[in-house]
TrEMBL record, chain A:
This is Sestrin. The keyword Oxidoreductase applies. Keywords: Cytoplasm, Oxidoreductase. InterPro entries: AhpD-like (IPR029032), Sestrin (IPR006730). It catalyses: a hydroperoxide + L-cysteinyl-[protein] = S-hydroxy-L-cysteinyl-[protein] + an alcohol. The lineage of its organism: Eukaryota, Metazoa, Spiralia, Lophotrochozoa, Mollusca.
Automatic annotation (TrEMBL), chain B:
GO terms for molecular function: zinc ion binding. WD repeats lie at residues 204-247. Residues 528-541 have a biased composition (Basic and acidic residues). Keywords: Metal-binding, Repeat, WD repeat, Zinc, Zinc-finger. One of its GO terms (biological process) is cellular response to amino acid starvation. GO terms for cellular component: cytosol; GATOR2 complex; vacuolar membrane. Coiled coil: none annotated. This is GATOR2 complex protein WDR24. Residues 492-541 are annotated as: Disordered. PANTHER family: GATOR COMPLEX PROTEIN WDR24. InterPro entries: WD40/YVTN_repeat-like_dom_sf, WD40_repeat_CS, WD40_repeat_dom_sf, WD40_rpt, WDR24.
Length: 471, 812
């Protein structure tokens, strides 16, 4: 059985639609991996996810099968995701990949080594990608063709964001892979990824540290945002509620209340200046949210061999050093209008798959929240989506960023930020600590949105660079 | 004021460009007398003067030092008030619609800010006639119509939570005063009535993927709506004809290589529409909707993708791009992509042939055809390769008609080719028999035309042709009738297919009349009913001929008027247009000769003899004579005496030249198989009449095809029978094969059964113990064997190896 944080009894209730999809997935991949099982909560999404992944890995495309899996390995290694790493190492060998390459990036062809630069940037600071990077790849001694590069970029972004999902749902190794069948219950309940199992739940010190940082940063956020959000105190008090842990309903209800306020409030049109101010402020406050900053456990060599420049990590967009990178304005280069056609042109049909995936992840709703029914969750969903884009410096002109503060409580923000930027550092405690009162399927939904928004953000930067190379 | 002139032109306007700013420009709007233009984009909002020779900046509405924080946003669209010079509306990405009044004092010129939309506004637009109606379309799914005179009066169209509205346009007021159309991100286009905000009038799916832009045709009485979207198509819809519920008919479809960002109809041209693409392609294209694959005109000059187009008149337009340039384009300067394409055409026929037409330097336009098919499976690639050899012969003809012959899928695989090659008799029988046989073979493989050829040859070379007509030619009648038609087809195809068709048609009328006459006169004898069946066929193909038949029948009835009729209906004009060599007509056999009336007719033939095209027509005579025979019996039944008389001495007829022509025309059509087979069968009868070089060429092609199909035996027969030195030598070359010694693998040079090195006799027959010099067979299991005959005898006696090794030998 797969190992996830989601309790088993809930997982067992399968929709017949899900069951059919599981069968298809099994036939496609010779296994029903844990990712699909967790996504089984959302059969509509799962269907699209599976067909996209199948398209990317198994159908006709510019790259050969062993390259595809090796690129997946490189992407997963960036986030220390053992689960995906092992899965694709197996697939790589199954598609007659050269076992020599698995000794590390240095043993792989130069073409793949060249890719590690944009792999690094895409994973952590996609805003640094420029057309020079593209030029370097396209004009190197072993050049990439445009469509190969497109395929590679989509694979990279797909697996980066899938890492977020894997960590977010606490999926650990498959049973048949190394370490998969020897888990103990204690490991299961702690951070599942084997690479991190050393710092399991038996390290109260680090978890304690998180809570304290959260409360302190919460105070600072209140100080900075005190002027804008009058409901902020409530948020904070809710955050406190959660520490008590019992009153999860209260939490959901409070969020509902916020959402209603946001929707009813005559959306006073804010000037662009104010918006930018807010956007920057939001970015800064995000930057102030501390993520669990424990020392990385001495990373295992089986991961590090695929990683170059392992010290490179996410830095907050708002506090970036190089100021020449300006905010990415979503209306100047949007996925729907610009990105789609470029992607589709270079890699036929991929645009349609991704389009479906994004819109399903973003628009899927069952009109529930926790135990409540008939809830319009659109503003909450949009807030999460845009919050992730903030972290990558993508600004939506027509979004009122003060809504974010009202809808996303501080520890949810911390959770999202950790998962988006440092997925490998997430703990089970974080997963349990947020969104109290939400159903498990809803938590998975949040993870899905997170994954898609992140992929879109990375892809937008990459496509924009490619586009400026082409023109 | 920096501007640079691009070119001078003779038209009223000049091409010019101006760099407005460094950032992206999103929209342009021109005031009503085209003297000023607004350029707007991200943190740009400038009004420029349009002068004769360039642009100059008039007002910068976003000046640095007076910078109002509210003004610093990205403008998606601008519109100039139709009547008031000083009022401008703009749409911002933050969801506000701003109305500017240039008359206001100071730098602050925003008179109203309408904040009814919650997301980016993509389009603002004033109504043509109701000048205070301002339409705005936004990503929040609403289209609103504001009254610019007041702050808070507006009508909302649409539903919350629907897809983004990407564009909206008022109908030209002459056709739909209250209507407008809106385009949505989900690919849908809706039309609304301004007075009825509950529900749209009509909704239809226009594109697969978001619709980016729509434009109503500006002309009166043309209810055309052009739409474009991410699927890179420009579609023109006829909005008036369809009922409100269904999809309107799509009149035109233009395929672009890239998603199109904006479209705009060209003024005063019904079929021209301009477009600019979203990302990679930087030119502005003007399309003729009737020519959907190549732009009518293309305008270069932009370094980044173009975002907006505004026409001044039909000869000039302004466009702005993402690099911050405004360019005025003049139609005279346009690049015409259609002028530079190489003229070529490819089409796939019903039968899977690809026709390819291309421009040739020497000839105006030649066409060639490739007998190739996409349907051919991999296993038939052989056939495919050889069918392209066929096309070598077809390429002489500048026609597609000749591919239109009855072809079916069997033909494409060329299976018939192999079967026919097997079945044709090329030697070992008399000429006439071979011809009959081959004719039947061809008939069997549904090649009636070739079959008729063969039968015709058989008839021509039948030695006793002059015997009594009623007896000898009863059988081939059918064949001959259609041979004529085929021959005509063949000979005329190359020269005047269209003309012929027309001629046929006009003559057919007369024939029907004649045919009826034939039927009635021929009465109810058995044979005549048989001919009746045929007559429809030859009526179709050989109308002129029918006329003549009619004449004879009429004559047979003995009416004087019929003779007059004859003379009137065989005027010189007809005869010369379809020359008819009467010398070859074996009329005497038919027993018409004694009729005095006919002499007048015969008297005309010197005149006809002079006709230059006897070569062709002489062939046609042959069937004609046969035909007469066929039709004779009924006549005989009326006047039996006519059949016996034979006054006229038959002249020795020379058909060879026409047969040669016929064979050449077959080969020209690509049927080397028939041509070569006929050559072989006819042998010396025909060989001198055809250029040997041609013959050789046909032989080589046919042999080549045969070897491709591994028909070695047949190809050898062909080579043997060819009697051409060049061809015969083919099977004389490299015929010696040296055997190898089974022990030392050395070539046995002296004798095939003796190895010089091993000093040993090889290949000894296990039965008679003598070296085998002819055919040898051996068992694959034990390796023993011997003379074919000996082994066969042995195996009848015993299943065991004759060498005594105990193996149970197996021979297949």
């Amino acid at each position: 059985m797969p190992v996830t944080r989601v309790p088993r009894n809930i997982r067992q209730r399968l929709h017949f639609k899900t069951l059919n999809l599981f069968m298809d997935a099994f036939i496609q991949n010779n296994r029903l991996d844990s990712v699909s099982q967790v996504m089984g909560y959302h059969p509509d999404y799962l269907r699209i996810f599976l067909s996209t992944q199948h398209f990317l890995l198994r159908e006709d495309g510019p790259l050969s099968y062993d390259y595809r899996h090796y690129i997946a390995i490189m992407a997963a290694a960036r986030h220390h995701c053992t689960y995906l790493l092992e899965l694709h190492e197996q697939d790589f060998l199954r598609h007659s990949g050269d076992p020599e390459w698995l000794k590390g990036l240095d043993h792989a062809p130069r073409k793949l080594r060249d890719l590690s630069e944009i792999n690094k940037l895409l994973a952590h600071q996609p805003w640094l990608i420029t057309k020079e990077h593209m030029l370097k790849l396209l004009k190197s001694p072993e050049p990439w063709s445009l469509s190969e590069l497109m395929h590679a970029i989509i694979l990279l972004t797909h697996f980066h964001s899938l890492c977020s999902f894997v960590f977010g749902c606490g999926i650990s190794s498959e049973v048949d892979s190394q370490g998969g069948h020897t888990y103990l219950e204690s490991v299961l309940t702690s951070t599942a990824p084997t690479s991190l199992s050393t710092s399991s739940s038996t390290s109260p010190g680090s978890s304690g540290a998180i809570t304290t940082t959260i409360t302190t940063t919460g105070a600072t956020t209140m100080a900075t945002n005190g002027a804008t959000g009058n409901g902020f105190a409530d948020v904070n008090s809710n955050g406190n509620c959660q520490v008590n842990g019992d009153e999860s309903d209260v939490c959901v209800k409070a969020l509902m209340e916020k959402m209603r306020q946001v929707q009813e409030a005559p959306a006073g049109i804010l000037s662009a200046e104010e918006r930018i101010k807010q956007f920057n402020m939001e970015g800064k406050s995000t930057a102030e949210i501390a993520v669990p900053n424990f020392k990385q456990p001495a990373s295992k060599s089986e991961i590090m061999k695929y990683v170059q420049d392992s010290g490179f990590a996410y830095t907050d967009f708002a506090t970036r050093k190089c100021t020449e990178v300006s905010t990415f304005c979503a209306c100047d280069y949007s996925w729907e209008d610009h990105g789609f056609s470029l992607a589709n042109r270079l890699y036929t049909d991929i645009g349609n798959y991704l389009d479906d995936k994004y819109s399903t992840a973003a628009n899927m709703t069952y009109y529930t929240m926790g135990d409540l029914r008939e809830v319009d969750t659109s503003s909450f969903r949009r807030a999460i989506w845009n919050y992730i884009h903030i972290m990558y410096g993508i600004c939506h002109d027509d979004y009122d960023y003060s809504e974010l503060n009202q809808l996303l409580e501080i520890n949810l923000k911390a959770y999202i930020k950790t998962l988006t930027c440092y997925p490998e550092r997430l703990k089970k405690k974080d997963f349990d600590g947020v969104m109290k009162g939400f159903q498990h399927s809803e938590k998975v939904h949040v993870n899905l949105m997170l994954m898609e928004a992140r992929q879109q953000a990375e892809l937008l930067y990459a496509l924009r660079a490619l586009n400026s190379y082409l023109t | 004021m920096v501007y640079d002139k691009v070119t001078n032109s003779s038209s009223q306007f000049q091409a010019m460009q101006y760099k407005v700013c460094d950032t992206q420009l999103n929209a342009l709007a021109v005031n009503k007398d085209h003297s000023q233009v607004i350029a707007a984009g991200r943190s740009v909002f400038k009004i420029l003067h349009i002068k004769e020779d360039g642009f100059s900046e008039n007002i910068n509405l976003l000046l640095g030092k007076h910078r109002d924080p509210d003004q610093n946003f990205c403008t998606n669209d601008v519109a100039w008030h139709p009547s008031e010079e000083n009022v401008i509306a703009s749409a911002a990405t933050n969801g506000s619609v701003v109305i500017w009044n240039l008359n206001m004092h100071g730098m602050f010129k925003q008179s109203k800010i309408l904040t009814k939309h919650s997301r980016s506004v993509s389009r603002v637009l004033f109504h043509d006639s109701e000048h205070n109606q301002l339409l705005s379309a936004s990503h929040d799914g609403f289209v609103m119509i504001h009254d610019t005179r007041t702050e808070n009066s507006f009508i909302k169209f649409g539903m919350a939570g629907t897809d983004c509205v990407k564009d909206a346009q008022f109908c030209p007021s002459s056709i739909g005063y209250f209507n407008f159309a809106a385009a949505y991100e989900n690919g849908c286009v809706q039309t609304w009535d301004m007075r009825w905000s509950d529900k749209c009038e009509r909704q239809f799916m226009a594109h697969n993927g978001p619709v980016f832009s729509i434009d109503w045709h500006p002309a009166d009485k043309t209810w055309w709506l052009a739409t474009t979207g991410r699927d890179a198509m420009i579609k023109v819809w006829d909005m008036v004809r369809a009922s409100s519920s269904s999809q309107p008919p799509c009149l035109y479809n233009i395929t672009n290589i890239e998603p199109v960002a904006r479209i705009k109809w060209r003024p005063n041209r019904k079929h021209h529409i301009s477009s600019c693409s979203m990302s990679v392609d930087h030119c502005v294209n003007v399309w003729d909707v009737n020519r959907p694959y190549i732009p009518f005109a293309a305008f270069d000059g932009h370094k980044q993708s173009v975002t907006s187009i505004v026409w001044r008149d039909c000869q000039a337009f302004l466009s702005c791009d993402k690099a911050g340039y405004i360019i005025q384009h003049i139609f005279n300067d346009a690049r015409r992509p259609a002028d530079h394409v190489s003229m070529t055409g490819v089409d796939l026929s019903l039968n899977g042939d690809i026709g390819h037409a291309y421009c040739d330097k020497r000839v105006e336009q030649t066409t060639s055809s490739l007998g190739r098919s996409k349907k051919v499976s991999r296993s038939h690639q052989f056939a495919q390769a050889s069918s392209s050899t066929f096309c070598v012969f077809q390429s002489h003809q500048s026609l597609f008609d000749d591919i239109d012959n009855v072809e079916n899928n069997d033909e494409l695989t060329l299976l018939w080719f192999v079967d026919i090659a097997h079945s044709y008799l090329l030697e070992g029988s008399s000429l006439v028999e071979m011809c009959w046989h081959n004719g039947n073979v061809a008939q069997h493989f549904k090649k009636p035309q070739v079959a008729q050829f063969w039968r015709m040859l058989a008839v021509i070379y039948t030695p006793c042709l002059n015997s009594q007509s009623g007896t000898s030619l009863a059988t081939p009648n059918l064949a001959l009738v259609s041979t004529l038609s085929d021959k005509q087809d063949l000979s005329e195809l190359g020269t005047k297919p269209v003309a012929k068709r027309g001629k046929d048609k006009e003559k057919r009328k007369g024939n029907i009349r004649n045919l009826i006459q034939v039927d009635t006169t021929s009465g109810s004898t058995e044979e005549s009913s048989e001919h009746e069946g045929e007559s429809s066929e030859f009526e179709r193909s050989a109308p002129e001929f029918n006329r003549n038949i009619n004449f004879y029948f009429g004559d047979g009835e003995g009416g004087e008027e019929d003779l007059d009729d004859l003379e009137s209906c065989t005027p010189v004009g007809l005869l010369t247009s379809d020359p008819y060599d009467w010398t070859l007509q074996r009329l005497p056999n038919e027993g018409f000769q004694p009729r005095h009336e006919l002499n007048t007719m015969i008297g005309t033939y010197p005149h006809l003899m002079g006709d230059p095209t006897t070569g062709l027509t002489s062939v046609m005579d042959a069937p004609r004579s046969g035909e007469l025979d066929v039709l004779l019996p009924p006549a005989q039944s009326y006047e039996p005496t006519l059949a016996v008389t034979q006054l006229h001495n038959p002249e020795p007829l020379d058909f060879s030249q026409s047969i040669a022509d016929m064979i050449s025309s077959l080969a020209d059509q690509g049927d080397v198989q028939s041509a070569v087979s006929m050559l072989i069968v006819l042998g010396e009868n025909i060989r001198p009449h055809i250029d040997e070089a041609f013959q050789e060429c046909w032989y080589f092609s046919y042999i080549d095809l045969l070897t491709r199909f591994e028909l070695w035996t047949i190809s050898n027969i062909v080579i043997k029978q060819s009697k051409l030195p060049g061809v015969c030598s083919l099977n004389q070359a490299s015929t010696a094969i040296q055997t190898q010694c089974p022990k030392c693998s050395r070539k046995c040079e002296r004798a095939p059964w003796l190895c010089d090195k091993c000093k040993q006799v090889n290949n000894i027959c296990s039965v008679c113990h003598h070296p085998v010099q002819g055919l040898m067979t051996w068992c694959q299991g034990c390796g023993h064997g011997g003379h074919l005959e000996h082994m066969r005898e042995w195996m009848d006696i015993s299943p065991k190896c004759p060498a005594g090794c105990g193996h149970l030998c197996e021979y297949s």
